[in-house]
Amino acid sequence: MIYQANHSLKTLAPTNLKYLDVGDIWCVYKPHNISSTQGERANMIDRLGSQAANHHLISEGINIFGLQEELGMLTRLDHETAGLLRFAKNQDIKQRRIHDQKLWLIEKIYHADVTGWLREPIIVSTPIMHHRDDDRKMIAIHSRSDEYNGRSSPHQVSTMITPIEIDGSVTHIQAIIHQWCRHQIRVHCADISTPIVGDTLYHKSASHDWLHLWSLGINREGNTGLVMVDRI
């Protein structure tokens, strides 16, 4: 079942980092336009490492995993996507959660604003591949000829998209993915002609300078998941 959190994220003093302690994992809110992991100048791992003295969850993560193991991070978020990064509290928990992810037992839950009207739920199952020439992009595959523009093998994935509210020319949606690949929600939304607001990679949007996509949490069948129901 999905647990809808009835408590808000706490602020990590003396910074504005927001976190949540939930059972065997803890979560940190990643803003838009910052890397999840090390490799870029602005990234969440270095930001958390600099605050180790201010919170036991971070210091314990460093002691158990170290910065090189990303404090036990379970999944990353794209640079442009905001939302909850999840961290395991020990190695056993991390291995069990990774095992569940490999078996597709975990659903990942997102909210987004898309351009256009979407009135009914839809499941988008279009396969996705890496773009042949552009390392930044993925492509939707509708036919054998499309595969010539891709590289590697197609990812057989699906996205459940449910409209929540229509506001003018924008629909606020929930997107749930079981199997997943890079940029899946962005590609699938663009593929059904309702691109995510602010997406300049798959839809040239000049009206916003940030991607209207938020990772809210997870759901695991038979276990407690986490959903932050409010956009942050």
Description:
This protein has helices at 44-49, 56-64, 91-102, 184-191, and strands at residues 10-12, 17-22, 25-30, 82-88, 106-115, 122-124, 128-131, 138-140, 150-155, 159-167, 170-177, 213-220, 226-227. Helices cover 15% and strands 32% of the residues. It has two domains: 8-103, 2-Layer Sandwich (Pseudouridine synthase); 107-232, Pseudouridine synthase, CATH 3.30.2350.10. The strands form two sheets. Strands 1, 2, 3, 4, 5, 6, 10, 11, 12 and 13 form a ten-stranded mixed sheet that branches. The protein has a three-stranded antiparallel sheet with strand order 8-7-9. With 232 residues, it is α+β, with helices and mostly antiparallel strands.
Q: Could you give the count of β-strands?
A: 13
**What is the mean pLDDT?**
87
**Architecture per CATH nomenclature, i.e. the level-2 architecture of the largest domain:** 2-Layer Sandwich
CATH class of the largest domain: Alpha Beta
Estimate the strand proportion: 25-35%
Helix content: 10-25%
Q: Secondary structure elements and their pairing?
A:
Blueprint: E1 10-12, E2 17-22, E3 25-30, H1 44-49, H2 56-64, E4 82-88, H3 91-102, E5 106-115, E6 122-124, E7 128-131, E8 138-140, E9 150-155, E10 159-167, E11 170-177, H4 184-191, E12 213-220, E13 226-227
Parallel strand pairs: 4-12
Antiparallel strand pairs: 1-2, 2-3, 3-4, 5-11, 5-12, 6-10, 7-8, 7-9, 10-11, 12-13
